[in-house]
Amino acid sequence: MRTFRLAIVENDEDERFFMSEAFRASGEFEILGEFGNGDQLTEWLHESPRELPELVLSDLNMPGKNGYDIIDELKTTYPDIAVFATSTSSVVSTREKCMRAGAKDFIAKPDIFIAYDSFVAEFYQLACQCLGG
Amino acid sequence: MHLNSDLIFRSLAEGIFLLDETGRITTCNPAASAITGYDATEIEAKPFYAIGEGQDDPIKYRYELDQALKKKKFVVEGWKMRKDHTRYWAETSYSPVFDESGHLTGYCVLLRDINEQKKREFDLLESEERYRLMVEAIRDYSIFMLDPDGNVMTWNDGGTFIHGYSESEILGKHFSVFYLSADLIDEKPKKKLQIASESGSYREEGWRVKKGGSLFWASVVLTALFNDRNMLIGYSKVTRDLTHRLKDEEILRQSEARYRSLVEQVGDYGIFMLDTKGRIISWNEGARRIKGYSAEDVIGKYFSIFYPEEDILNGKPAWELKVARSTGKYEEEGWRLRKDGSRFWASIVITAVYDTESRLSGFSKVTRDLTERKMSEQALQESSDKYRQLAEELSVTNGELSSVNRELEQFTAIVSHDLKEPVRTVRSFLHLMDQHLDQQKFDLLKASIGKGILAAQRMHDLIDNLLHYSQISKIGLERQKLKVANVIGEAIQNLNDAIEQSGAHIRVDSDVPFIYGDRVQLVQLFQNLLANALKFTNGSTPEVQVKSWMEDGSVRFVVHDNGIGISPQNLEKIFEIFRRLHFSDQYQGNGVGLAVCKKVVERHRGKIWAESVQGNGASFHIVLPKI
């Protein structure tokens, strides 16, 4: 079974904690980094990490560079990295806006952040479709 | 030299025959032989008629000789035949010859070949005859000759046809029979002959009398005829009956009369004629209705009476005629005066009128009263202006509605993102605490409760801010004249604590004493900008400068700080609601302040933007309309 190298961008620490816990628990993802916003992510990427992530999962609403900024920036600087957007919003227009901007897909966050298991499973499916599993 | 009679006889160039008393030829001279072709010997003792026209006619010959005897000379002309049988026209002159005792001894005959002369006469006759026949056959013209006294000498078919007299009735009569008695009293016929003889010809048109006494309209040309010695030998008179043409002219006159009455009766257009000087010479019903003058009022007056005084002083009427004269036409619309002095809006066309010989004979002027049309046009214009204004208002309202709609969408987005987030956090921690209780991990409860409370607090703040933000766009703007110093002063006053804590220096350089706007909102605007200037620092003492000046009729404010500045890609994002560039542990905030500023400025129909130069702080620029 294939595992994916992942970077998580989420400004809420508690949310980020439970999110990454669920990803690790699944055993399907290798988390290369966790970041509070786009600024932190790009800073890390520019420092030429040993390994680049295959996937970036990014929240949309964040202080500084937000999710849209990340989609926009990585599209040109790191076109090989597939960016997936996530948000508490389940409004259709938000998803469309992300896809238009260049996100591989959009997944709505679970109702409560202690229930990330099914989110992780869905994300794995999408990742396989996108990068091949 | 001896001159004897025989020598003369032989040498004479005229052809001479000598006949005995019975009329037989005794001899002839060579000239005679040359004419006839016969030698004297050939015709000796033959009667003279033997060299005649080929048919012996002794009776006629006897008569001719008797006549010669009686009258002593007798001349005849007629055809004779030469020896070679060719004909010639001969003049034969017989003279009887008597001896001393008075007895007839014979005849001397002089023969002349006058063939050539005769032929010329014939030709002339023939040509004259042709002309005569031609003239006589002409029916459309009466052509006849008068003798110098005016008596009719010739007549033609045309004369019969036109005047009614037959040739026999008129020949020899004086041509005055063709004239009216009135003309006769004036001695017109005599005068006309005189004019014709003096100047060569005379022409005229006039009434003439036919045989029955009826009249016809005649065109007459009388031409004096002179012979080669320049003596007056008579007159030719050519007459045409133009009554028919006169009828046409009468029809024309009637049609003109009809046209005139038509023009006179037209009621909607003022149509009248001016003479070359601009005096009114005709008037119609429309002119009466439009201008209020009757024909008696205006005929003979200058058309400038219709013009307002300033036009007359400017010489406009005369100028219009000048234009019409030089270009053929003058058109315009303008105010004109009625008889009662009231104005009407006239559309006028002045057209130069020329007679058949292209001489200016005056002007026609057509006037229409467009006052009503102008009024309705104006009314239409006004109503269309009103509708346009209404449409503009609608468009503005529409724009406002669209912006409200956009705000509503934004609000939806905010509710779905920003407000949902803390609720979700609270829910999440409640669920987590439930798990902790199930797992008897009571020590973990405290932390989760604390985070739940924080999230609930954040929720509360967000709702407050959102309400505040939406209030700005809801509550009516209270426009009043405000002292700039007071507005900025109040904002500074509200930030007193923060200023004291940071030890900031705020300098205000305001060139603009007053602005118009909502006091509460403008204070909020400056308060938010100043608060940001105090907050976003690198720990150094804030230096803030507020300036204002007039610029293109607007008021320009600049709030400049020495803080951390703003990177270029974020210069616009900062005005979005709930947009934060920093984590709240770095710089406190709720992402509403600049969104409120933008809203306030837009509600005052102004513009706000940020500028920032790396390491030189940020400056916020505001342009507000003066009023």
TrEMBL record, chain A:
Give the matching Pfam families: Response_reg
InterPro entries in the cross-refs: Bact_response_regulator, CheY-like_superfamily, Sig_transdc_resp-reg_receiver
Domain of life the protein comes from? Bacteria
Q: Does the keyword Phosphoprotein apply?
A: yes
Q: Where is the Response regulatory domain?
A: 5-124
Per UniProt, the keywords (alphabetical) are: Phosphoprotein
**Which of the residues bear the PTM 4-aspartylphosphate?**
59
Q: What's the protein called, per UniProt?
A: Response regulatory domain-containing protein
Tell me what organism the protein belongs to.
Dyadobacter endophyticus
Q: List the top taxonomic levels of the source.
A: Bacteria, Pseudomonadati, Bacteroidota, Cytophagia, Cytophagales
TrEMBL record, chain B:
Q: Does the keyword Kinase apply?
A: yes
Statement: the UniProt record of this protein carries the keyword Kinase: yes
Q: What is its EC number?
A: 2.7.13.3
Q: PAC domain: which residues? A: 74-126, 202-254, 330-382
Histidine kinase domain: residues covered: 414-627
Boundaries of every PAS domain copy: 8-72, 127-173, 255-310
Catalytic activity, reaction form: ATP + protein L-histidine = ADP + protein N-phospho-L-histidine
A Pfam family it matches: PAS_9
Q: Which UniProt keywords apply?
A: Kinase, Phosphoprotein, Transferase
Q: Which InterPro entries match?
A: HATPase_C_sf, HATPase_dom, His_kinase_dom, HisK_dim/P_dom, HisK_dim/P_sf, PAC, PAS, PAS-assoc_C
Cited NCBIfam families: sensory_box
* Name of the protein this chain belongs to: histidine kinase
